[in-house]
Structure formats: structure tokens, C-alpha cells
Fold:
Amino acid sequence: MPKSKRDYFIAQSEDEALSMRPYCGTCEIQLNEDYYCENCKHQCLCTHVKCEDNESYGLMDTLIKKNERFQKFTIEILKKPPNK
Structure:
């Protein structure tokens, strides 16, 4: 199966710490710790982070700026639907 989308993490803040779950960009399924997608048989590389809130975005932004290992990462904040 050809690769069509970037693999990514979903990040959220929990007690001022960052929790990140990896996902396959092609299948949109959550990955195990080895980042291997059983569905499309692809070894995923997650370097994009989708943050669930402003706090997780801030934590990830700081991590990217202060830690050389994360400098190739990109981040975005997920938009939540307005309350009705």
C-alpha cells in the first residue's frame, strides 16, 4: 500500500506532562510501541504532532525548541467544535 499521509502523534497534556499516542497516517489507526502498522504492513515514522489543546501545544513547542532530538518535528493544534 503506498504511503499517502504523514504518520503522527496525538498529544494531550496530563498534569502538566505530555502524553503522546502514535498513529499511522495512511490507516489512521493507533500504533504499538514499535510504530509498525499491522494493517498496511508499514514501519511508521511519526514526526508530526497533532495537539489536542493549547497546553499540549505549548509543551511540545518548548520540547522542539529545547531538545535537539525533536527539531525535525512539526506541530499543529486540533480545532475543537464550538460548544452549542
Remarks:
- The chain has a mean pLDDT of 89.
